[in-house]
Amino acid sequence: MTPTEHRPRHHRTVVSYVRRGERMTTGQQRAWDTHWPRLGREVYDLPPGPLDLPAWFGREAPVVLEIGSGMGETTAQLAAAEPEVNYLAVEVYTPGLAQLLLRAEKLGVHNLRCLRGDAVDLLRDHLPPDSLATVRIFFPDPWPKKRHHKRRLVQPPLVSLIASRLAPGGLLHLATDWADYAEQMMAVCSAEPALHNVFGDEPGGWAPRPEWRPVTKFEGRAHEEGRAVRDLLFRRAA
Q1: Among the four residues 22, 28, 56, 179, which has the most C-beta atoms within 10 Å?
Q2: Are 75 and 111 in contact (CB under 8 A)?
Q3: pLDDT tier at 4, thresholds 50, 70, 90
């Protein structure tokens, strides 16, 4: 089964991602063929209206949404460590989702579901207000060149949309190793009236790095290159 190309229902002129090669390894293809029909869906093929997550997961539980799961290095481990939540990962890169399914299989994860497509479409069209316990955006593409900053994922419209989908008391957790992007994230999130900084009284407002977040190769490289990793934790008002 070879993934097919899908076009977004709502065309956006500026997106935060680029299309990469879709070639998969033998192991990734096997994991895709085995698990995607049950654990994965295409955002662009979802029927109109809210996604029925309790039916898909087979239970009612708090929903954690991770935007941009990459190759699943962190996602699979976090889902395995939190069996009490319904863990939802959205990603545009097909081999990354296949690798996530492979990692989840090896860890015996049962509380993970995956969506391929644009997170903005998912949030806007298929996740109702007050439906998410946590949203995580870990190490999004920094688009380091100034002329490309408009492509960065964390912008006011997205943060406002996320805030509306968080349940009262829900958390938005971000992390980046690019200093200017961290400052941008802080400014954008601080300006959203529905959110408040959990660590606003700390120097800079930065959250401490959580011990439970696995250290990925990207974070390890940041430390090697002397870049500080910044975490931000914002809560929706109850």
Answers
A1: 28
A2: no
A3: very low
Asked if residue 91 belongs to a known ligand binding site, the reply is yes
* Residue 141 falls in the annotated catalytic set: yes
Strand, helix or coil for residue 135: strand
Alpha helices in the chain (DSSP H): 26-39, 53-57, 73-81, 94-107, 119-126, 156-165, 179-190, 217-224
52 in a known ligand binding site: no
The pLDDT of residue 223 is 86
Cα–Cα distance measured from residue 133 to residue 117, given in angstroms and rounded to the nearest whole number: 21
Q: Give the bridge partners for 195, in sequence order.
A: 236
Instruction: Identify the three-state secondary structure at position 179.
Output: helix
In the set 52, 121, 141, 180, the catalytic residue is 141
**Residue of higher predicted confidence among 31 and 12:** 31
**106 annotated ligand-binding residue:** no
The amino acid at residue 96 is G
At 218 the pLDDT is 79
Q: Decide if pLDDT at 2 tops 50.
A: no
Residue 66 assigned as binding residue: yes
The whole-chain average pLDDT of the chain stands at 91
Cβ atoms within 10 Å of 122's Cβ, excluding its own: 21
User: Once rounded to an integer, what is the mean pLDDT over residues 65-86?
Assistant: 96
The answer for residues whose C-beta is within 8 angstroms of residue 237's C-beta and 6 or more apart is 168, 194, 195, 196
Domains and CATH numbers, the chain: 40-236 (3.40.50.150)
Distances (CA, A) of 51 to 11, 45, 46, 55: 21, 11, 8, 9
What type of residue is 114? C
